[in-house]
Amino acid sequence: MARIGFLGTGEIASAMIQTIAGAGHDIVVSFRNERVSAELQARYPGLRRAANQTVVDESDIVVLCLLADTARKELSNLAFGEGKTVISVMAGVPIAELERLCAPVTEICVAIPLPPMPLGGTPLAVFPDNARLNEVFGPHVSIHACASEVVLSAHFAATGVLLPLLDQMEVAANWLSAFTGDRAEAANYLAGLIGAYCKLLTQGTGTDLAQLRAGLGTEGGLNQALSRALADNGTLAALEAGLDSLRERLRLPSKEQ
Ligand SMILES: NC(=O)c1ccc[n+]([C@@H]2O[C@H](COP(=O)([O-])OP(=O)(O)OC[C@H]3O[C@@H](n4cnc5c(N)ncnc54)[C@H](OP(=O)(O)O)[C@@H]3O)[C@@H](O)[C@H]2O)c1
Predict the structure, then answer these.
(1) Per-residue pLDDT tens over the stretch 127-153
(2) Does the C-beta of 70 come closer than 6 Å to ligand 1?
(3) Best mutation site among 66, 75, 127, 155 for ligand 1 pocket (most ligand atoms within 8 Å of CB)
(4) For a substitution probing ligand 1, which of 32, 137, 159 has the most ligand atoms within 8 Å of its CB?
(5) Whose CA is nearest to atom 40 of ligand 1?
(6) What is the overall mean pLDDT for the chain?
């Protein structure tokens, strides 16, 4: 059992707490957001709400779930003791800056949780790998330990593919529902279809992406025809260019380097 504190109780803190709340940890959260923290307290007996300094004082692991600008203001008002672990989920706050803001803490990692985390098995990219994070979240997620902070930033960029992929799903669902008259059923069908194939990659079946694509890419088949149509009109190249356009914002090296 760990003593875990969350600074900032918004969307992502709520998802992380729901993920681990049944595992017997001692959890304390910031009063803010009052509505979210009150709901969590009502739902999980034993979960406590407190002022930020109390959250820090009463935790061995402090999870930073603030917006970056709030963190820059708020963390400098807080005193961190020795021996704590800080897990930041904030995009755009480098580890060197976190070391200054949370001094004297030296055990600091940055992770990328996802809102569907409570469903179990979602990927959790992290740098550097951290034993306490593994102990608390490892049973509930699939941890992707990154080799460097740059690699972690590239994983942040990769989360940006979600909406473009859902955009394509929406086009397909609209197209299908023109025949069925039921958009929700069409979206559900496509999600099940794509989800089933994704499970072949994530559930240790030994199938890799190349094998999956080869299996679907039968010469003259429906999948090959649609895949070629997207490649030919530049959709796939646009996705790669879009990912490259995120490099500067995430301080990733330019493509030429
Ligand atoms: N949401 C995601 O999918 C996601 C995924 C990965 C990482 N992240 C990162 O997680 C961080 C939080 O994102 P979020 O989506 O959870 O945002 P959010 O829902 O807006 O949560 C931010 C929380 O901080 C609270 N807060 C503001 N000032 C505070 C203070 N002085 N002391 C304590 N709490 C304070 C807010 O309370 P009030 O509402 O009362 O202002 C709110 O509960 C961001 O840095 C984001 O980059 C988010």
Answers:
(1) 999 999 999 999 999 999 999 999 999
(2) yes
(3) 66
(4) 32
(5) 33
(6) 96
107: tokens are: 């055990």
Task: Give the number of other CB atoms < 10 A from CB of residue 254.
Answer: 8
pLDDT at 257 over 70: no
d(CA 80, CA 88): 14
Which atom of ligand 1 is found nearest the CA of 9? Answer: 43
For the chain, domains (ranges, CATH) are 3-146 (3.40.50.720), 161-245 (no CATH)
Strands 3-7 vs 48-50: parallel, antiparallel or unpaired: unpaired
Q: Would the CB of 227 count as within 6 Å of ligand 1?
A: no
pLDDT of the residue at 211: 96
Tell me the CA–centroid distance for residue 9 and ligand 1, in Å: 6
pLDDT at 54 over 80: yes
> How does pLDDT run across 26-46, given as a tens digit for each residue?
999 999 999 999 999 999 999
